[in-house]
Each structure stands twice: as structure tokens, then as C-alpha cells.
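ok so for the tutorial part 2 we go from a plain amino acid sequence to predicted C-alpha cells. step 1 is just haveing the sequence, like this:
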Amino acid sequence: MKKIFLTFCLLLLVALSNAQNIQTASFDHIDTTLNKTQNIFLNTQAEAFLSQVNNVISKYPPDYPESEARKSALLLLDAVLHDLYASHRPPVQSFLKSRIKKAIDEIENTKITSGACIWKLYNHGFVIKTKSVTLGFDLVSGIDVNVKGFTIPDEDIRRLVSQCDVLFVSHLHDDHAEESVAQFFIDQGKPVVAPKEVWKDKSIYTHITHLERVPHTEQTLLIQNKKQNLKVVVYPGHQGLDIENNVYLVSTPEGLSFSQMGDQSNNDDFEWIDKVGSNHAVDVLMPNCWTNNIVRVAKGFNPRLIITGHENEMGHTIDHREPYWLTYQRKNGLYKPDGIMDIGYDTPLIIMTWGESYLYKRENFSTAPSSH
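step 2 — the prediction. this is what the C-alpha cells look like for a chain of 372 residues:
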């Protein structure tokens, strides 16, 4: 019994020592309104919560319909990530990096025979892999958060780029457009498609592909050293009044179509949004979760499935980190700050967090009315 007790004490001391070492290395970067003991407590709590999140979402991966256990785990993740200093905390940094590394491992090793596997990376970044092509959208490392230790390492970004055939960049903001990531694509001879506003004063600009922003009109984009081609519609979207925001609708050789909306948020653009679904069949829509009137967006695109992006962007203030609970409320018509959204939408919704994947098969989803 004495030996067991001594072993327990030794393990406890090691654990406390490890926690102390982690905090000592990062203490100056964490909440200075708290003392060292309080910061250690919040770090340890974040580690415990994130461990539980990992356990639950591993047991209950993205699916439709969603389990209550999974939903609870995502809400717990909201609580951790809405600590003002969450991005400074070592458990949060480890959570992000380990989940992105897991996704990259999967992308490298997953063989697709039918449908498409969709990975959600950081912020509004997605990778979509079909039997013939792999698409990247708004891939970034998190450098915009400007917190030491939070950024996804270059070696992992390079691995990710090596698996993709093309990068689509929605707009100029650095939580969507990261020059170093684009350069990795260019160095590998792969196209980077972006609006003309992006990197216009940088040497990389001449290497960027600028497709025409024309509603409903398909253009051909050659990839894989011109051995394969994509059909791409570049809808002339905007963030706010003036920032060009490309809304891509990309059709793969298998005839599957995917649209990622960047930071689309301009009511004048409903002139073309309202007509997307009547001009093109959309398999999966990936809107920014906070886009203007998502009920009308869902109705206009009429996709078979919605997968939201932009939740928990850690470079934003906590009131604009867009928690998962708000995505649920927008889906159900419970969130209506302007009195407009009061009906919700019926389109199937899958909510994903960093590093998760979902195997989409068209036969599992029929087009459905987009509002209640």
C-alpha cells in the first residue's frame, strides 16, 4: 500500500510539474488580469474540456441527422474557445494543430471511389477530394491571429498543399487569403484563383489566376498540368459594400458541384443569389455561418447539403467568433437580431469543427424546400 501511495504521489508531482512548465513557458502571453495559479487552472480546465470534446466527436463524427452528444460537445468547444485568451492557451494550440495534422494524414491516405470527402480545416478552409480531383478553399495557417504558438506549422501546410490540385481564395482578408500558402501552391505549379484585389501590390500577383466574375456562367480551369479540368462559376459577391468576394461554384469531372461563399455579406447580391439554384444544381453549399439572411441564401442556392464555415475564428473578438450555438439558432430561426430571420430553413445542415471530415454521397440527400 505504501508503494502504491508513493507511486501515486510521484505521478501527481510529475503532472503538476508538466503543467507548471507549460504555463511558465507561456505565462507572459496569457491573461494578465489573472494570477499565475488562475491561469494554470484555466489551462488545465481547457485541457480537460478539449479532451472530452475529442472523445465525443471521435465517437460521433459529422453526420445527418446529428446526435445530441455531438451537439453538446460542440457547445462545450464554444465555451473553451470564447475565453478571451483561448488562442494563447497551450491546450487550445495543441488541439488545433493535432486536429489539422489528423486531417492531413487522412487526406493523404483516403482513397475516394464515389462521392466526395469534405474536410473542414481552420476557419473557412475546406478541402474536397473526389476520385479525380482535390480542391482547396481559403486555406490558411492561422497566422492572422498573431499569437505565438497558435499557427499551423509550415511543414503541415506544405503537406496539405501537396495533396491539393488548386486553391480558391475568396477575398483579401488574411483569415481567408494567406500569401505564403498561395506561394506553396505556385511553387508546385498549381493554380491559385482569387479576386483581382488580392495581393495586387505583391510580386505574387502575376502568378494568380483571375477568372471573370460573371453570374451563372461556367468557365474552364485546367489543373493537374492541364490533364484535368474543372467547370467554375465565379459569382460576383462582396463582403460589405466594396470588398470583392468571389463565391465559387466548382463542378468536378464526376459532375459534383460545391460552392464556398467566403465572407459573402451584401444584400444587393441577392439579385444573383436568388437564381443560383435555378441555373445550376448545387450539391454542397459552404456559406460563412454569419452571412446575410441564410434562409434566403439556402433558398436561392437550393443545395442538397449545407456545411457552414467561419465558426470560432480566433483572430476575432469573442462577440464575433461565431459560436456553433449561433449556427444552430440560425438554422432553426431562433436568432433574429434584425427581425428578418424567423422561419429557419429545411436544408440538411452538418456542422464540423477543425480537422473533421464527411463523406458526401448525392444519393443520401434529395433537394428539399429551403425554408420551413
